[in-house]
Write a structure and sequence with these properties.
Tachylectin-2, Chain A, 1 helix, mainly beta, 2% helix, six-stranded antiparallel beta sheet, 496 residues, Jelly Rolls
């Protein structure tokens, strides 16, 4: 069958003279370019891929379309760090030049095998605008950093019977003496599924079957992307990014969402018995997360701070999106908790601490840093409605509000001159047990905020595109409260 052609399916090898250099210069001038979040030099970034701590360094790969802020021929870009803070850009790891990946090197994960980093990914194949297939592929990174594609690719050709061409995002792990590969998939009846392959050597794979997953997903769920499986404290966890969920009161308000499930994997019987599940992040811009084991065997996670099919203000500057900061995962009271990786404290430079007592109304806590971290403890037993405003100025602000009567916390991004994604709503919310005090930790980086409440019990990830003067932090309340806080100015990573 003839392969589908379209101008956006070209690689960096086909760039015109000075095209990439011009794009890089244009993006470098952006006011919204993050100072320390991983982002593209130009073009579009989406899913984090191949995350690993390997040979003394952290390696992050990500989906990258170089030529503009839209989805085209996906490459794997590559950055590395020894401390999760200072990132170095490396040559593009995967350029889709082969027939088995003719329309892009799609997402995947990594695993160390015999002292080498195996990079598993999906080779995307398109026959028309609607008709596609998929191959599962392998690239191998040596300790010297050289990446080569496996000479017997694809390691899995095509898709199994009963499934459409939407099969992608391999996650590989080892149990006992066997390797297993999870893949997001779509059944022929256009419903989402996870399928499993197995291998004795991580090279030759055979189809094992479909995973029975009791998540009570609606028939409207047409795809399960980016499956991830791991253990923390002996507790087994499955993370997946469903497409087509129906919005509920506080849940699944984005176009696409992420859920995690606690339970028990029976790999031989192809079941994951779910004991509980919930949405992973309550913000506007979070999808396709991937976890990996860090230097000290902790479980770390990066997510895509973006959302498909949304036009962002930076699209006009020919770049889009960034990754979240690295987060450390833990299990507390049978819930998956996310905290900023402890290494991020290395970003701190100037700090300002204070205590404010407020009877009602609002007060400025700070104004002036483009990129900062806020740590706040709010004693609020007398207040019914209170909160913090980030990116604050006379006319703009991202409002984090706590409501004691409804026991909820909400995030509102309607007060910006540069507004976007109005059709999907401008407020997100979550249930929260509001006692006498709440803790807020927020990282603000020019056009992104990551907010951790009560040590990661609730997390909001959101993009915002403020005016240059909107750099303040404001505290507000309807009744008396006391706020003890520190604001840290954060360093810029010039190498990004």
């Amino acid at each position: 069958m003839t392969k589908y052609t379209e101008p956006k399916y070209r690689t960096i090898h086909e760039a015109e003279a000075n095209e990439l250099e011009s794009l890089k210069e244009k993006v470098a001038a952006s006011l919204w370019k993050p100072a320390f979040h991983i982002h593209p030099e130009h073009g579009l970034l989406n899913d984090p891929n191949g995350l690993a701590y390997f040979n003394g360094a952290y390696h992050v790969f990500y989906q990258w379309f170089p030529f503009g802020a839209y989805h085209g021929m996906k490459h794997w870009a590559h950055v590395k760090s020894t401390n999760l803070v200072e990132w170095e850009r490396l040559p593009t790891a995967l350029v889709p030049t082969e027939d088995y990946e003719s329309h892009g090197a799609y997402s995947g994960a990594s695993m160390e095998v015999d002292g080498k980093l195996y990079l598993y990914y999906t080779g995307n194949i398109k026959f028309s605008a609607e008709e596609r297939s998929a191959n599962q592929c392998l690239a191998i990174m040596e300790k010297d950093g050289q990446v080569r594609k496996y000479d017997k690719n694809p390691i899995i050709k095509g898709v199994p019977a009963g499934f459409t061409g939407h099969v992608r995002d391999p996650k590989v792990f080892k149990k006992g003496n066997m390797y297993y590969m999870l893949l997001g998939a779509q059944r022929e009846d256009k419903t989402g599924a996870i399928i499993i392959y197995e291998s004795k050597d991580a090279l030759d794979w055979s189809f094992k079957g479909e995973l029975k997953l009791d998540l009570d997903l609606p028939e409207s769920c047409y795809m399960l992307e980016c499956p991830d499986y791991f253990e923390i404290q002996g507790q087994e966890i499955l993370v997946v990014s469903p497409q087509g969920l129906e919005a509920k009161k506080h849940d699944y308000q984005n176009l696409y969402n992420v859920i995690y499930a606690l339970g028990k994997l029976d790999i031989e019987n192809l079941t994951f018995d779910v004991t509980s599940y919930e949405e992973l992040d309550k913000g506007f811009d979070f999808y396709a997360p991937q976890t990996f084991e860090g230097k000290s065997n902790e479980r770390l996670m990066f997510g895509w701070a973006g959302m498909a099919e949304v036009e962002y203000p930076t699209d006009q500057e020919d770049w889009a999106h960034c990754l979240t900061l690295p987060r450390e995962l833990d299990i507390v009271n049978s819930r998956l908790i996310q905290k900023p990786a402890k290494e991020l404290k290395q970003l701190r430079s100037k700090s300002q601490s204070d205590v404010r007592t407020l009877d009602n109304g609002s007060t400025k806590l700070h104004s002036g840093f483009l990129s900062f971290e806020l740590e706040a403890s709010i004693e609020s037993s007398g207040a019914d409605s209170f909160g913090v405003e980030l990116f604050s100025s006379e006319t703009e602000g991202l409002v984090l509000a706590f409501d004691r009567s409804s026991q909820t916390v909400s995030l509102n991004r309607e007060n910006f001159h540069t507004s976007f994604d109005k059709e999907n709503g401008l407020v997100r919310s979550a249930e929260l047990s509001i006692g006498d005090s709440v803790k807020v930790q927020a990282f603000v980086d020019r056009s992104i905020a990551e907010i951790f409440i009560n040590d990661g019990e609730v997390v909001f990830t959101t993009r915002a595109f403020p005016m240059q003067q909107s750099t303040g932090v404001k505290l507000f309340t309807d009744k008396k409260l006391t706020c003890t806080y520190t604001i840290h100015q954060l360093k810029s990573n010039n190498s990004l």
